Amino acid sequence: MNTIKIGGVPEHFNLPWHLTIENGSYLQNNILLEWIDYPGGTGAMCEALRKKEIDAAVILTEGIIKDIIAGNPSKIVQTYIQTPLIWGIHVGAASRYTSISELEDAKAAISRYGSGSHLMSYVNAQNQGWDTSNLQFEVVKNLDGAVEALTNGAADYFMWEHFTTKPLVDNGTFRRVSDCPTPWPCFVIAVREDILNTKLPDIKILLDIINSTTLDFKKIPHIDKILADRYEQELEDIQKWLQLTEWSQSLIKESTLDDIQKKLYKLSIIDRKIDSQTLIFKF
Q1: Which residues have CB under 8 Å from 84's CB, separation 6+?
Q2: How far apart are CA 124 and CA 106, in angstroms?
Q3: Which strands sit side by side in the sheet containing 2-8, from one edge to the other?
Q4: What is d(CA 80, CA 6) in angstroms, rounded to the nearest whole number?
Q5: pLDDT (tens digit, 0 to 9) for every residue of the chain, 283 residues total?
Q6: d(Cα 11, Cα 161) in Å, to the nearest integer?
Q7: The whole model's pTM is what?
Q8: Any bridge partners for residue 57, and if so which?
Q9: Cβ atoms within 10 A of the Cβ of 133, count?
Q10: How is the chain classified by DSSP, letter by letter?
Q11: Which residue from 61, 125, 154, 244 has the highest number of Cβ atoms inside 10 Å of its Cβ?
Q12: Sign (positive/negative) of CA torsion 183, 185, 187, 192?
């Protein structure tokens, strides 16, 4: 029995992984797949990949591209979510800010440097025509830390996935002032290079299993109710999210990676562009 440790955010996107673990799909193929939640998001998973705490990750596209260029010895093996991620831009309930235009010189809460909340702050700033060199950040580690920071005034706004934060908007903890979608497919699956060298047959099986599940995920009976119950979401919000979200079963295109690198380079998020073939692993 080979063990593979995979990390991901504790969000509704990743229910297919939990369903396949729970129904024994990997065990039937002599694989013990250990899922590890990372509430801190992509920055935490990049660090875990580097430290060999996990073998693979379901991770934000822009974050893993940045970290591979910075030396993370991992490769993208597949797109996981083809559609953009919708980042809600949130302020605290008692905040004096009421519109996105007022946030130009405000301080952004981020889970950590190199995280999606960090990188998307630059994308949002560019969309708004702000000077990205003036951005200010407060590291808050995770969503709970953001709640604390926006409540006590340590930070002014926080970007996180729209539907994950919707309950906090509904209960009055946050106010959402706008949304900012990623201009690319949002989640990919990345695997450490040494694991690709030593456990490639297992990785192929793992992808076959998850792909067969995501292909028909929306057709699972009552999947909207299952998602709403598991992730404490309103049914109508989950139904809207399902309409907006498409899973992928293929490798991200090199032309897409080129476009993402151009965007990240223009924003000074990466200091160089590399051959996109070196970011991916082709089976």
Answers
A1: 181, 182, 183, 184, 185, 186
A2: 13
A3: 31-37, 2-8, 56-60, 187-192, 74-81
A4: 14
A5: 999 999 999 999 999 999 999 999 999 999 999 999 999 999 999 999 999 999 999 999 999 999 999 999 999 999 999 999 999 999 999 999 999 999 999 999 999 998 999 999 999 999 999 999 999 999 999 999 999 999 999 999 999 999 999 999 999 999 999 999 999 999 999 999 999 999 999 999 999 999 999 999 999 999 999 999 999 999 999 999 999 999 999 999 999 999 999 999 998 899 999 999 999 999 9
A6: 9
A7: 0.94
A8: 7, 190
A9: 7
A10: -EEEEEEE-SSGGGHHHHHHHHTTTTGGGTEEEEEEE-TT-HHHHHHHHHTTS-SEEEEEHHHHHHHHHTT--EEEEEEEE-SPPEEEEEEETT-S--SGGGGTTSEEEESSTTSHHHHHHHHHHHHHT--GGG-EEEE--SHHHHHHHHHHTS-SEEEEETTTSHHHHHTTSEEEEEEEE-SS--EEEEEEHHHHHH-HHHHHHHHHHHHHHHHTGGGSTTHHHHHHHHTT--HHHHHHHHHH--B--SPPPHHHHHHHHHHHHHTTSSS----GGGGB---
A11: 61
A12: negative
CA–CA gap between residue 26 and residue 202 (Å, rounded): 9
Structure tokens at 112: 């950590």
CB atoms under 10 Å from CB of 279, counted, come to 23
Q: Is 152 exposed, middle or buried (0-12, 13-18, 19+ CB in 10 A)?
A: exposed
CA-atom Rg of the chain in angstroms: 19
The span from the CA of 5 to the CA of 35, in Å, is 6
Sign of the torsion formed by the C-alpha atoms of 50, 201, 37 and 113: positive
